Amino acid sequence: MTHDVIEPGSGALPLTVFSEEEQMFRTSVREFAEEQIRPHVSRMDREGKLDPSLIRQFFELGLMGVGVPEAHGGAGSFFMAVLAVEELSRVDASAAIVVDVQNTLVSNAIVRWGTEEQKKGYLPRLCTDTIGAYALSEADSGSDAFALTTRAAEREGGFVLNGRKLWITNGGEAGLFIIFANANPQLGYRGITAFLVERETPGFTVGKKEDKLGIRASSTCELVLEDCFVPRDQVLGEVGKGYKVSIETLNEGRIGIGAQMIGVAQGALEAAIGYSRERKQFGQSISNFQGVQFQIARLATELEAARLLVYNAARLRMAGLSFTKEAAMAKYFASHMAETVCSESLEVFGGYGYTKEFPAEKFYRDAKIGKIYEGTSHMQLQTIAKLILTR
Questions:
Q1: Global pTM?
Q2: Are residues 382 and 258 in the same domain?
Q3: Which of these, 30, 7, 5, lies nearest to 19 by C-alpha position?
Q4: Residues 271, 231 share a domain
Q5: Residue 164 domain-assigned?
Q6: Residues 106-131: tens digit of each pLDDT
Q7: Residue 2 falls within a domain, yes or no?
Q8: 255 & 374 share domain
Q9: For the CA atoms of the chain, what is the radius of gyration?
Q10: Do residue 351 and residue 294 come from a single domain?
Q11: Count of beta carbons in the 10 Å neighbourhood of residue 18
């Protein structure tokens, strides 16, 4: 029996084997995260704010546009965006989510649904100096995403928006917002429309910043729209087709959340492994105890399974193949895995893990959001079941 050998660069690489370009990129992001982000993590978590110098470096390194087509100033690789989110999350999930939302939600939506003028006007800015935010959620429309109360009343030359958005990631720093509002409530979800709204638009303000359990340095804000006029040429996609923009963009965004969760879990597990080698009990390192060894082996296996799901969904998306079910599976499994890995990694530290002197408790807090945002775990299960049972 003979076995074919897959050569690097052949286009048929196993999921966890990277092309030379992907490997170099992954290494550079990891080095950046270790050298430039890690020294600030505790302070940023404590203060609930990202260091502005890091945001500048995200742009300088090209991380904010890695998923944008080369024609508009980016690198054109969704998979490398996933790698960036994973590697940044290994050090700090708050830093990673800025890059994640920029690439998998905001820029991605404009690439897919924007006019040529919108692409030329916004994508280069999103690559170089402008943070974006994706504003779908409201107080009464979380999982019921289409129960929007924000309205878009048609006026000559455009629409007037009124309403409030909640839990908007990047809200504190963003200069461009994709805002979903209903332009024809009588049509239900078929009235929902997506709008591109710049921060300085009259009638638009950023409201309260949430004080959160985890990803504390990432801004999560309320948005307020009071007679905010948006020109017709700022509609993203077609009027009444915003529901399609939101659903299909979130399908891709879920892969990014999966990447965030495997990064958080990797960071937590590495911290636990390092501590287990240093901690002495009964005259030896606790890493010599079979109970600890089995615990770490099990967690590492669950982490690797989640990584394969995330990479598979990302590769399918890159290949232009169907990936909705796989993305939902990746987010569902990776978020549950991360909560388990971070919880048990904390326990390896014993009492020290419960203190802010060690990194375990922050990883644990950061992991919880994975089961909630960009579609709860229940919503992922609903999506998976529907796609399986309606074939």
A1: 0.95
A2: yes
A3: 7
A4: no
A5: yes
A6: 999 999 999 999 999 999 999 999 99
A7: no
A8: yes
A9: 21
A10: yes
A11: 19
Give the pair of three-digit tokens for residue 213.
């359990």
Tell me the two tokens of residue 348.
């390896």
**Does residue 146 sit within a domain?**
yes
Beta bridge partners of 236: 194
Give the helix/strand (H/E) hosting 43.
helix 41-47
260, 250, 253: which is closest to 337 by C-alpha? 260
**Are 311 and 226 found together in one domain?**
no
Give the residue from 68, 98, 130 where a domain finishes. Answer: 130
Q: Would you say 252 and 134 are in contact if contact means Cβ atoms under 8 Å apart? A: no
How many Å apart are CA 306 and CA 302, to the nearest integer?
6
Return the amino acid letter for 115: T
- For residues 39 and 286, what is the distance between their CA atoms, to the nearest angstrom? 28
Sign of CA dihedral 345, 347, 348, 350: positive
Instruction: Give the chain's end-to-end CA distance (angstroms, integer).
Output: 37
Cα separation, 186 vs 192, in Å, equals 11
Identify the active-site residue in 86, 138, 222, 374.
374
What is the reported pLDDT for 306? 98
* pLDDT tens digits along 200-210: 999 999 999 99
Q: What residue numbers bound the domain in which 231 lies?
A: 133-240
Whether residues 74 and 126 share a domain: the answer is: yes
Note if 374 is an active site residue: yes
328 pLDDT above the threshold of 70: yes
pLDDT at residue 214 tops 70: yes
Secondary structure class of 364 (helix, strand, coil): helix
What is the C-alpha to C-alpha distance for residues 234 and 389, in angstroms, rounded to an integer?
39
Domain boundary among 115, 130, 145: 130
Residue 10 is predicted with a pLDDT of: 45
- In this structure, the answer to whether residues 252 and 359 fall within a common structural domain is yes
> What's the DSSP call for residue 282?
T
What is the tally of structural domains in the chain?
Answer: 3
Phi, psi of 129 (to 5 degrees): -155, -5
